[in-house]
Amino acid sequence: LSAARAQMAAPVAASPQRQILLDSATEQDWDAVVAALEPFMKENRVARLREMLDRRRGGLHLVLENIGDPHNAAAVLRTAEGLGVQHVHVIESISDFHVTDQFAGSAANRGRPRAAGTNLVSMGASRWLTVSRYTSSRTCLAALRELDLQVLTSDCPPLSDEEGSGVEEETAQQAQGEGGWQTHKSHQFEARPIDALDFGARPAGAALVFGNERRGVSKAFLERADGSFFLPMCGFTQSFNISVAAAMSLWAAIASGHFPEGSLPSEAKARLMARWLLRDVKAAKPILRAAGIEVDEF
């Protein structure tokens, strides 16, 4: 490490600038960034980062729509990161997504209030995830379609007459007759048990969608998804906490065998490694400049 610092301090001959645009960088661009910054991080730290990258799962995406409770949000992110799920899509059309002031390393979150204790729940998981944020469910859905992912929404089966009062279904039917809105429960229920899903239906992978703690997944997603699923239950309780439901669902998808460890594409690994080093290596900007590299938005 000291030798690397000495090398940086030595005069560097002028060299052509390599311009790297973050939104269009190639795998070779990311490799160049890594090669320049890696010597300035401790070897054991670099080895740990590469070990985790080599175990990341490709093709399995998590979508969180208007999650209201910061502790739930933090718990879901911690579960996703712990299972090697890299990509999380966050929709904030109604509720802001609050976790910690380190959330995804995003400048957009700096200055937002932090819920007490959420840093202990997430354990810093958001630092290692690729989090994409959207202001509408339709925008998120369009992005998932562009990735050619199978979109699967979580949906709870309606209560039977013996389990519920029937008021919700009756109200929905009355509203329908008056030309008003309808709840999803007034429609034929088509969700399947999660273990009955074919997670390999699309080669690119699948996205599991979870909605707000009280309202569930929005009508916009339910009507446009490729399918819906639920977690079978055998107790009196009618639902799981969202963090528990997300954990069980992600594990069911992993257990299907379609998203093994180490399946993240090489370009994605190179991009992640470069972004982690850009974030964590002190004086990264002058180091890159000495190597003839200029990264925009950095």
Give an account of the 3D structure.
The protein has 298 residues and is α/β, with parallel strands linked by helices. It has helices spanning 2-9, 27-37, 43-53, 70-82, 118-122, 137-146, 167-177, 219-224, 242-255, 266-280, 284-290; strands spanning 18-20, 57-65, 85-91, 130-134, 150-154, 192-193, 206-210, 227-230, 293-295. The protein has a seven-stranded parallel sheet with strand order 4-3-2-7-5-8-6, with helices on both faces.
Secondary structure blueprint with pairings:
Elements: H1 2-9, E1 18-20, H2 27-37, H3 43-53, E2 57-65, H4 70-82, E3 85-91, H5 118-122, E4 130-134, H6 137-146, E5 150-154, H7 167-177, E6 192-193, E7 206-210, H8 219-224, E8 227-230, H9 242-255, H10 266-280, H11 284-290, E9 293-295
Parallel strand pairs: 1-9, 2-3, 2-7, 3-4, 5-7, 5-8, 6-8
Categorize the overall geometry: elongated
Q: Biggest sheet: strands, sense, closure? A: 7 strands, parallel
What's the order of the H and E elements? HEHHEHEHEHEHEEHEHHHE
**Overall mean confidence score, pLDDT:** 80
What spatial order of strands do you see in the largest sheet?
A: 4-3-2-7-5-8-6
Total number of strands: 9
How much helix, percentage-wise, in residues?
25-40%
Q: How much β-strand is present in the residues? A: 5-15%
Low-pLDDT runs: 101-123, 160-187
Radius of gyration: 22 Å
How many alpha or pi helices? Answer: 11
The CA-CA distance between the termini, in Å, is 23 Å
| Global structural class | alpha/beta
